[in-house]
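Researcher: Please translate sequence to structure tokens.
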Amino acid sequence: MKRITIAIVLAAAFLTSCTQNEMAKNFGGSMTINLPANQKLVNVTWKDNEVWYLARPMKADEAPETWTFQEKSSYGIQEGTITLVESKK
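Model: Translation complete:
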């Protein structure tokens, strides 16, 4: 019983020490990124456990959008989701 308790505590400590990026990528979690005001999303990618996105200035006639990137894994488990939200001032 003591070993099970220790294992649960260690697992909880491990999972809570992960960043939101790591949870979304490695464990099928979800995260939201709010882009700076008046920025338009161009592209998004991973480098190791970090999310990198490319944005450009939003044109006056463009409306803000919300983009959802959904992972499709081979086995259908631990699929992460990243939502990027654009906004105007």
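Researcher: Any highlights?
Model: Helices lie at 2-17, 20-26.
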